[in-house]
Amino acid sequence: MDFSSKLLENAVNEMSQLPGIGRRTALRLVLHLLKQPQSQTNDLAGALEKMRSEINFCSSCHNISDLALCEICSNPNRNERLICVVEDIRDVMAIENTSQYRGHYHVLGGKISPMDGVGPGDLNIPTLVEKVRSGKVDELIFALSSTMEGDTTNFYIYRQIEPFEVLSTTIARGIAVGDELEYADEVTLGRSILNRIPFETSLKS
Amino acid sequence: MDFSSKLLENAVNEMSQLPGIGRRTALRLVLHLLKQPQSQTNDLAGALEKMRSEINFCSSCHNISDLALCEICSNPNRNERLICVVEDIRDVMAIENTSQYRGHYHVLGGKISPMDGVGPGDLNIPTLVEKVRSGKVDELIFALSSTMEGDTTNFYIYRQIEPFEVLSTTIARGIAVGDELEYADEVTLGRSILNRIPFETSLKS
Measured between beta carbons, which residues in chain A are less than 8 angstroms from residue B20? Predict the structure, then answer.
């Protein structure tokens, strides 16, 4: 693309660095900003810069938080001996939205993925192992996505906590509520049969 | 969505003001920035602010330009008596990419669209009419998109320049080069038959 303005070209170049935003979309977004009041662009730029420079992470669960200890970790009504291991803040938000979980979280900050250059050293694994080692945890719920990277990460952590006395569980995989059986994939349907639960249990949830 | 951080929430709110960016996508983009070096966020924010505050428009054709007179308008090899009327800079870039046009442009900055609150007064129409009135133009090529808004805008301008001596043309509509006839819509196919051209002409292009 040939731009008639260096300023416009720079803005489009920076915008198209974002994932899923190509140069055409970036141009559309930048032209939109040009048609809006200047304050909107300043607000956007200011919010991004402020967020990037001042963001904090909870010292206990590593979730994004404005406080040194996040609201979940500092809530006395939540069970700190039950920890759900997740990939990032989006998973925390998704589980919180269900209102079904009253334990703590541990945010790894990613999954082990050699293809993307992410090794165990890049994740918040040592603090989790330390929590388990010092006997502060009764149960660890693995809630990573069931991809190869997720399974690798689960297994890596599992091997490290194996020597200690802690119950390890993983979230149930199966047919989604409301889905039709005939359209489910074989792996999911197979697992949902193998891991069937007592009918009485299903009535309670 | 419940955010654990006000900074994150602000950034997501501002990002999701952009067209086609919902709150989930905004969160994904913002979390991506958090994983990148801080300089990337600063570069993006800086480029947007600088672009928005310092951008200039060509005094003749109203295209975005860093100079008072854009490169196209100041190019002595281009025919200033031939003017192509377009909606915005993206159309200029698309036509320039064809390398088939050696005239000038006139960027309206939008289309007449009462639904979006855009009236003739919001567009760069008076300067175009003035150019025609003062006898500086031989031919005006209408190249707006063939939607109701585009047709309305074409007709509005046409009525204003009608009293003056100028040739008005519109870009050809028809089956795209390489497209199969059977999949073309009826309106386009019908127009391409009505506006057929001598076979010899098609050999030259």
Answer: 25, 28-29
